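Summary for the steering committee. The consortium agreed at its last meeting that each partner would contribute one worked example illustrating the joint modelling workflow. Our contribution is presented below. We chose a case with several input lines so that the handling of multiple components could be demonstrated. No manual editing was applied between input and output; the record is shown as generated.
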Amino acid sequence: MKNIIVGAGISGAVLANLLAGKGENVLVIDRRTTLAGNSYDYKDKETNITVHKYGPHIFHTNNKEVWDYLSKFTKWHFFFLKPNAIFEGNVCNIPFNLNTLYQVFSNSMAQRIEEKLISNYGYGVKVPILTLKENDDNDLKFLSDYVYEHMFKNYTMKQWGLKPEEIDPAVTARVPVYISHDNRYFQDKYQGIPLNGYTKMVENLLKHPNIKIKLGVDYKDLKVNFDRVFYSGAIDEYFDYKYGELPYRSLRFDTQILNKEYYQKTVVTNYPNNYDFTRITEHKYFLDEKSDKTIISVEYPEEFKLGENERYYPITDAKTKELYEKYKQEAEKLEGLYFIGRLGEYKYYNMDLAVEKIFELYSKLFVKNN
Ligand code: FAD
Ligand code: UDP
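What follows is the complete predicted structure of the assembly.
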C-alpha cells in the first residue's frame, strides 16, 4: 500500500510509527520545515534554552497506554504546571482554588466561602465557572461574580473576542474553580515535558526504515496518487472551502531574550484583565534550564486570517459543528481518505487525546479487521 501522512505533528508522527511497525511504507510530509507541528520546540543558540515556539506545551494524561507508548520515544522531565495570574495587582494561584481564596479575600471571608464550597460541592471537586454562577447562596454568588469578573470575562474576551457564555462551555470548563489546596493546573496521573524536547520525541517516532519524511512540501503541490491519505491539515482547506471556512482563533507570540536570569516566578503568568496579551511564558522553567539570560513569549490572541497566520484553536459552536459535519460527510464518501488530529477533526484536542484518537483509528483500520 502507498500511504501518505500529511502533517508531521504528534498525530501524524504516531500514526506513521504504528503503520511502519506493521510493515507499511509511509511518506510523511509537512509544509513547515520543522517536525512536531504545534508542539515544535527548539534550543535557542544564544542561551541554550528550549523554546516552545507555538505556545507552552505540557504533556498530561490519565491514559497509561498513551504514556507508556510515548515513553518508548522519550525520557521525561517530570513537571507540574503551577501557573500564576495577576488579579488587581496581586500574584495569585490559578485555577482559582482554595489557596487563591485566601490570597484575594480576608481570612474570615475566605474561611466562610471555603466551608460553603466544600459543603455544597465537596472537597476536590472541580466546578466550571458557568455552573458556579447558577448557585443562589449569597457568598457563593459573590465568589462566582468575583471569579467571573476578574479571571474569566476579560481573558475570554481577549482570547476569543467573545464573552464566556458565548463560547462552547467545555472551553471555560477546562479551567474550573477547584475546591482544593492543590495548585497544579492539571491533576492527571502522568505529567511531564520530553527531556530532550517534543521535536526530538517526534523525530524518534519517525525514525524507522519504512518512513520517509519530506518537509517544506504542501500536499496540494504533490502530483502523486496514494492508496491511503491520512490528512492532519484543515479539513475545509482540503475541500477548497466549498461549504465555507471553518473559523479558528490564532495567536501571535512576541518572543524576547532578556538580559536577566529570571523574568517571573513561574513558567506561565496569566494577565486576565490588563494589557492586550493573555499570558507570558518563561521557557527555561519547562526543563529547569540554567542560563544568566532568559526567554519569554508574550501571547497575543488574534483573528485567524488565511495565509497570514496559523490556525491554533477551532471555534466550536452549534453552527461550526454543523459546517464541520458537512465536510466530514464529504470525506466519508472518499475511500482511503482519513482526517486526523486537531485540524483534520476540528477538535480542541490536547496532545494525549490526539494520540488516543490515532490509537482508535489504527485499531479500527488494522487490528479489528485481522
Ligand atoms: P498539529 O500539531 O497542528 O500538526 C498538523 C501539521 O500539519 C502541521 O505541522 C502543519 O504544518 C501540517 N499541515 C497542515 N496542512 C498541510 C498541508 N496541506 N500540507 C502539508 N502539511 C500540512 N496540548 C497539550 O496536551 N498540552 C498543552 O499544554 C498544550 N498547549 C497548547 C498551547 C497552545 C497555544 C496550542 C495552540 C495548543 C496546545 N496544545 C496542548 C494542543 C496541541 O498543540 C495539539 O494537541 C497538537 O499539536 C495536535 O497535534 P496534531 O498533529 O493533530 O496537529
Ligand atoms: N480562561 C480564562 N482565564 C484564565 C485562563 C483560562 O478565562 O486565566 C478561559 C479562557 O476562555 C480560555 C479557557 O479558559 O480560552 C481555556 O483555558 P486554557 O488554559 O485551557 O487554554 P489553552 O492553554 O488551551 O490556551
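The mean pLDDT is 96. The pocket of uridine-5'-diphosphate (ligand 2) is lined by residues 85, 94, 151-152, 155-156, 159, 171-172, 174-175, 270, 272 (CB under 6 Å).
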